[in-house]
Amino acid sequence: MQNIHMNTRILFGLGLVVILFSSYLNKKDNHIKVPAPITLKVKQVAVSIQAPTALAFPGNGEIWVTEQTGKIRSIKNGKLSSIPVLDLAGKLPKMNSGYEERGLLGIALHPRFSTNKKFYVFYSIPSKGKFNHTDVVSEFKLGSAGKAEPDSERIILAAEKPDGNHNGGCVQFGKDGYLYISFGDGGGQGDKHGEFGNGQNLNTWLGKILRVDINADSGYLVPKDNPFVGKTNAKPEVWAYGFRNPYRFSFDRASGLLFAGDVGQDTWEEVDIVKSGGNYGWRLTEGTHCYNPATGCDIKGITMPIAEYNHREGVSITGGYVYNGKLISVLKSKYLFADWTGPVYYLQKNGSTWQRGKVTLQNIPENLKITGFGEDTAGELYLLTNPDTGPGNTEGGIFKIVKN
């Protein structure tokens, strides 16, 4: 009898341990639980666009889309105008019809566009020296006929690029009224530029996000509160550094935070929240991992990404926007982004960390390359797509993201 009671107590005790351990595991699983997937629909806005790269919303229901091959096209009431707002094709380098990263890459409207009609573009031109090409940021002014005034171009700044890839190419205005500009690390593989790469070299614009005041009679002014103003061997225009190819960044309208998708090298894609003076690691790190050196890298002073994903899930991040619209409540305050190869994701903040969830888009053709995002004046979001890998394809599209 004693043995029976002893065995019963032992079994009871073991059962309690199992229950408690299972409860612990469940709590642990709940703590690291991946956010629920979201299913949304898209609505086609326009097709027959040649390699779309960026959007702008000048008002009155009009949409401008930049084509990598040099034109800004206007869309109104679902119709794509045959007459471009601006045509820079004659200024671009000779483009490859297959894979190509140069071209017309970015656009931003002046904060007072409704009255001064000024807008800004990021595009590539042939190098006058020994480099592959030059990336230019220029100001144009819209004329009364809905086209850019031909003689209105004012070059804000220009940077020589040793290789054709990793151009960055994003231009956005912050709440402070200053223009932010992204440049890639100079191209090639592994940022093999100089002793420690362009990303970590503060004396170059390459591998950086810049911040400048374009309200000048010529060129630009450097804001006095830029983090490297007055520092030795540092460009005063630099806002943050340590990037490989920050192809797309954006500002959250609600918080003012700057989110950037930095394209990785061999293994990791990352999302960063970019702050004044921050070092985001490249080429010391790729994502949160050592890159050069492969082990034992000194991460002191590096701001790590808020999220990363492995190349098992994609190959090249396309940064997006925090959703601040009113039509899709499930997306509110979430950062929506994608991989160039098609997968779409969101990030939501949970305490001090950001969790990544998957987004399924219905009503969209399969196997599209996602080349960019757009945000209209109401905070609604758009996708830019290309069915092929380069600027030679003329069947690119724009899709508005809508609720399921």
Short description:
The protein has 404 residues and is mainly beta.
Structure overview:
This protein is mainly beta. It has a single domain, classed as 6 Propeller (Neuraminidase), CATH 2.120.10. Helices cover 8% and strands 38% of the residues. The chain has helices at residues 2-31, 113-116; strands at 38-49, 52-59, 62-67, 71-76, 79-80, 86-87, 106-109, 118-126, 133-141, 154-161, 171-173, 179-183, 208-212, 238-241, 248-251, 258-262, 268-274, 285-286, 289-290, 307-310, 317-322, 335-339, 344-350, 353-362, 369-375, 381-386, 396-402. The strands form six sheets. Strands 21-22-23-24-1-27-26-25 form an eight-stranded mixed beta sheet, with no helix packed on it. Strands 2, 3, 4, 5 and 6 form a five-stranded antiparallel beta sheet that branches. The termini are far apart.
Tell me the layout of helices and strands.
Elements: H1 2-31, E1 38-49, E2 52-59, E3 62-67, E4 71-76, E5 79-80, E6 86-87, E7 106-109, H2 113-116, E8 118-126, E9 133-141, E10 154-161, E11 171-173, E12 179-183, E13 208-212, E14 238-241, E15 248-251, E16 258-262, E17 268-274, E18 285-286, E19 289-290, E20 307-310, E21 317-322, E22 335-339, E23 344-350, E24 353-362, E25 369-375, E26 381-386, E27 396-402
Parallel strand pairs: 1-24
Antiparallel strand pairs: 1-27, 2-3, 3-4, 4-5, 4-6, 7-8, 8-9, 9-10, 11-12, 12-13, 13-14, 15-16, 16-17, 17-20, 18-19, 21-22, 22-23, 23-24, 25-26, 26-27
